Amino acid sequence: MTKELEHKFVNDLEQHQNIVHKVCKIYTNNKDAHNDLFQEISIQLWKAYPKFRGEAKFSTWMYRVALNTAITLYRKSKRTIKTQDFDSVLYKIESSVYDDTEEEQLKILYKAIYHLSDIEKALIFLYLEDKNYKEIAQTMGITEVNARVKMNRVKNKLKKILNP
Amino acid sequence: MDQLELLKKDWKNQESSLPKVSKEEISRLIHKRSSSIVKWIFIISVLEFIIPYLTLLFTGYDNKSMSSYEKIGLSNFMTIFYVITSIIILYFIFLFYKNYRSISASSNPKKLMQNIIKTRNIVKYYIWFNLIALFVVSLIVMYKMFNSQVFMDSLPENTNMVMIWLVSIVVIVILVVFLWLFYRLIYGTLLTKLKHNYKELVSNGVDKL
Lengths: 164, 209
Hints:
The structure holds 2 protein chains of 2 kinds.
Chain A: H1 3-27, H2 31-48, H3 58-73, H4 86-96, H5 102-114, H6 118-128, H7 133-140, H8 144-162
Helix pairs in contact in A: 1-2, 1-3, 1-6, 2-3, 4-5, 6-8, 7-8
Chain B: H1 2-12, H2 23-29, H3 37-60, H4 63-71, H5 75-101, H6 109-146, H7 149-154, H8 161-202
Helix pairs in contact in B: 3-5, 3-6, 5-6, 6-8
């Protein structure tokens, strides 16, 4: 791959890196794991870049590659801290859920999201990115009906975790 | 849902707090080694293709084995068997390569998972083919061997042939099952998470909480 292509890619990625960071934020819970996933997504983007012909927006294409890497391709490194089991998290949430400062609420929300499944994380991520059901369906490769059903289910699941 | 709205608001305002990676750092990162499962699937699949074939060639198709096949009148059969097996194996490798090439991180997550599962399924069919071929050929070789004069002469009188058949078949079945379990172990470790995610993505029924 030519230097020119690499230069162009590095510029594009640097400009749109927030998308990758946000995916990492949803899928990881510490700095090392974040950096590991960021690295793997960058590698996958670079490997797929020569075939990217601008048929979609660069950012749309990035969403796909980044989510694919997080859901399917990435093998967690040994440095990634093992996740706590679900019950202990629920317990912690229960005991602190009435703390009503916004910051505390957000912490709990992010913690709850981290314990969703890979697919649920992707859906919540796309919801937070303000994608409509059509875009979510296209990005994930599922039907719009399926996307709606799944999204409602994830929201309900979060609701139940947050308000036990 | 108020809490999710709060989260969305925070999500939109987080841009400034996200890490910032420089161009130099990105240039360095993209040349690092990938830890993608596709790389491992490729390496393991290639090994799975090569090992049974090499085992077949080195244990069955050498001079010593061929002369023993000749003694029981199976040398032509074995030569034809090796030729046909080789053609089928080449076809499997072609299919595997074709499917492997279709795995792309740019496809949507559903398509990507489908392509990976399809590629691994080629390896699964290949393993099945090997195990069935191993079983059938062993039966034929045993049948010819047990009916050959040399073998009959070497047996003590009053040998129970049914027992010999039974023990031999049990040994082969154990071998085949063992190889199959070993393969399932590799297959399982590679694809459990992926298959789970795929099922979850395509399913639309009422899910557990």
